[in-house]
Design goal:
The complex is a heterotrimer.
Chain A: H1 2-15, H2 17-25, H3 29-54, H4 58-68, H5 72-79
Helix pairs in contact in A: 1-3, 2-3, 3-4, 3-5
Chain B: H1 2-22, H2 26-46, H3 50-77, H4 89-111, H5 120-127, H6 135-143, H7 145-163, E1 174-175, H8 186-208, H9 216-232, H10 244-267, H11 278-302, E2 305-307
Antiparallel strand pairs in B: 1-2
Helix pairs in contact in B: 1-2, 2-3, 3-9, 5-6, 6-7, 7-10, 7-11, 8-9, 9-11, 10-11
Chain C: H1 3-28, H2 32-58, H3 61-90
Helix pairs in contact in C: 1-2, 2-3
The chains are: A mainly alpha, B mainly alpha, C mainly alpha.
Chain lengths: ~100, ~300, ~100
């Protein structure tokens, strides 16, 4: 059973290679950021798979932290399209600088 | 199967590192560095170092991304992205020499490591005296407590250094821009939804740290991330850096640690714990450190004061 | 192989399939917004199957709860990121 989980982990890891390619090519910054998101989501899955393969519940805490912080970089990124990085891309007008 | 996974992971880490350094696009390099953080956390997991993996997941995948993207934003606004040109070759030569020297030192250190077990057995033998289940916490707060004490002091000193960069007219003011978000928009909702869960995870990590992977630094980083999220989503502003309660929170951890060390010195051994009370003393230090590390990291990311209100 | 193991194997295969689908979408789709929609949906479906497989393998209620929390957090993160990155990508991007 442990080998099966590690085989799945290898599969997820290989599928993450495409994200590196997209992060390299871009073209937009949003595309690059999405690649980081994909690798973050893959990391959560890999941590769960390694935890199951070794039956070590403490490893799940790493998956928990990765999942909790998965959107932080994306949040910082979306703020960069607003003035001084202080706004919200959903607001109609940006705050005065 | 584990070996195949480890080899693929190594290839990935090297690839992400090479792309982060080789890229012409600065934002692309930032993205590769964030990716590298996630992969390194997985590598520590695969090596069985769950404590380090937790710290790397919180720092590398969470907080560093916010810091680097903020730095990129600052460079863009200062116009430093347009006139970026390749550094002259002496600079590159020195950088290459420095990197080669550091790499050589690391390789030498790894080759010089004692056999398979290192100090694992010694720690396991002595760990019972501190009544802690987690050997990493036993080393960090017991056997090598002076290392950890100095590290927490380094963090506080780094924050003092960052604050000292504040311009005179905003001295003691508020760091960072005033963040706003659309009321009840996605960003504000996320900023309200995640902090309670983040708080729970942070408290859990420091509570778990005594007997299983976790501890003050991991928990403090998660709590710092929660703080940063609340600020970024415009729900609360950063405090004034001159605020006395804030400064008390920042030095509380190192002060408690130092106090315990001095009390030990008066009783016979600096940074020693009285027999039978080691676990209690270490837990008090851990909780105090968690709060201080959280505040210090969050304010380090926020940077020097930029405005008065 | 017992029926339980067969089920776990099938769930893992589905999980890896959806992760791979997310990556194929990220590579093949023509523009940023289509890629975003491939990525945030497929990946979290894959994670859901993997979490189910791990939960069945462990067969422990506390661990199942923690796994569910991990998946929920990943869903929150992906939902927020999808919405806001889509908005951010609408703004024209000046060349560097």
């Amino acid at each position: 059973m442990a080998d099966l989980f590690m085989l799945a982990a290898l599969g997820v890891l290989i599928s993450m290679a495409g994200a590196l390619w997209r992060a390299w090519r871009g073209p937009g910054r949003a595309d690059r950021m999405m690649s980081a998101q994909l690798i973050g989501a893959g990391g959560v899955g890999l941590a769960v798979l390694i935890a199951a393969a070794r039956e070590e519940p403490a490893i799940l805490d790493v998956a928990l932290v990765l999942a909790l912080l998965a959107a932080f970089a994306a949040l910082a990124f979306v703020k960069t399209v607003t003035v001084q990085g202080a706004g919200d891309p959903e607001s109609e007008e940006d705050p005065a600088p | 199967m584990s070996l195949a996974f480890d080899l693929a992971l190594c290839a990935f880490i090297l690839g992400a590192a090479a792309l982060a350094v080789a890229g012409r696009n600065l934002f692309g390099s930032v993205v590769f560095y964030i990716v590298y953080g996630v992969l390194i956390a997985l590598a520590w997991l695969s090596l069985g170092a769950v404590d380090v993996a937790l710290a790397e997941a919180a720092i590398g995948a969470g907080v560093t991304g916010v810091l680097l993207i903020g730095a990129w934003q600052g460079m863009k606004e200062a116009g430093a992205l347009e006139d970026s040109q390749a550094p002259p070759w002496p600079v590159r030569l020195w950088a290459a020499l420095g990197a080669a020297l550091t790499g050589g030192l690391v390789i030498t250190a790894i080759i010089a490591l004692p056999g398979q077990d290192g100090l694992t057995r010694t720690v396991a033998d002595e760990q019972g005296a501190l009544a802690l289940g987690n050997p990493v916490t036993a080393v960090l707060l017991g056997f090598r407590a002076y290392d950890t004490l100095l590290e927490t002091l380094v963090l506080s000193a780094a924050l003092a250094a960052v604050w000292s960069l504040s311009p005179e007219r905003v001295w003691g003011g508020i760091p960072g821009p005033k963040h706003v978000s659309r009321p009840d928009g996605v960003m504000a909702s996320f900023g309200r939804l995640l902090p309670p869960l983040g708080l729970l995870v942070g408290v859990y990590l420091v509570w778990a740290g005594a007997d299983q992977p976790g501890g003050a630094f991991q928990a403090g980083t998660v709590l710092a991330a929660v703080w940063i999220l609340i600020v970024l989503s415009g729900l609360r502003d950063e405090p004034r850096v001159s605020s006395l309660p804030l400064r008390a929170v920042i030095i509380a951890g190192p002060a408690v640690f130092l106090g315990a060390g001095l009390a030990g010195a008066l009783a016979g051994q600096a940074l020693g714990y009285p027999p039978g009370y080691a676990r209690t003393a270490i837990l008090i230090i851990e909780y105090a450190l968690t709060v201080s590390i959280a505040a210090t990291l969050a304010l380090l990311i926020a940077g020097p004061a930029r405005r008065l209100s | 192989m017992s029926p339980g193991e067969l089920l776990i194997t099938a769930l893992l295969a589905l999980g890896v399939f959806f992760y791979a689908a997310g990556t194929v979408g990220l590579i093949r789709f023509p523009d940023t917004h289509s890629r975003l929609h491939a990525l945030t949906k497929a990946d979290n479906l894959g994670l859901g199957f993997i979490v189910l497989a791990a939960g069945l393998h462990w067969g422990d209620a506390w661990i199942a709860g923690k796994l569910a929390l991990i998946w929920l957090l990943a869903l929150f993160a992906a939902g927020m990121a999808a919405q806001l990155v889509a908005r951010a990508a609408l703004k024209p991007e000046p060349r560097e």
